[in-house]
Amino acid sequence: MARVVVFLRGVNLVSRNRVSMPVLREALEGAGFEQVATYVQSGNVVVTTTQAMRAVPAAVAAVVKERFGIEIGAVMRTRTELAKVVDRNPLAAVASDPKRYQVTFLDGDPDAEAVEKLEAAAVGGETVVRVGRELYSWHPDGMGRSKLGRLLSDKGLGVTATSRNWSTVTAVLALADGS
Fold first, then answer.
1. In this predicted structure, what is the pLDDT of residue 15?
2. What is the residue-wise DSSP string for 93-130?
3. Which class for 140: exposed (0-12), middle (13-18), buried (19 or more C-beta within 10 A)?
């Protein structure tokens, strides 16, 4: 049995792709996942499973499609992988506000040209660092008008991508730990 975190991409965005977290938990339990927990409404799911790790994101996305009728992307990290994401924290020296510091989780290696575009789009004190399948980004003036922030999507990266702020990342890790 493995404890894993699945980040759903694009759910509960204003009035689009509405997914009730209590209904999602129930549906995932019905699909055989155990110890299902969610954090806030943005699609952060923690489950225990015996499934092959590569199959988990697609299985969760299939439950969302079946129960809610929407197709979404899903990116997964094991509890151990997520702990390493938090331990790395390559922007700890500059990221002073966890709501403006985000991690973009990727389901594979991003296009190299896309990463170069991200680095070029970082202006006004913004910073982006790629470490494996994560992009850590600091947005001191917020995400609202950030060109870098708009580029941190799967459309330009060539892989499924979904972002969470640092507060959410650490809270989801605590949830995976049972805290």
1. 74
2. TT---TTSEEEEEESSPPPHHHHHHHHHH--TT-EEEE
3. middle
Q: Which fold has domain 2-81?
A: Alpha-Beta Plaits (3.30.70)
Q: Which residue has the tokens 């580029």?
A: 151
pTM summary value: 0.94
> In the chain, what are the domain boundaries?
2-81, 82-176
Q: How far apart are CA 4 and CA 80, in angstroms?
A: 8
CA angle 69, 75, 79 (to 5 degrees): 125
What's the rounded Cα separation, in Å, for the pair 41 and 18?
9
Instruction: For residues 67-90, give the mean pLDDT.
Output: 96
Distances (CA, A) of 6 to 9, 65, 76, 138, 145: 10, 15, 4, 23, 28
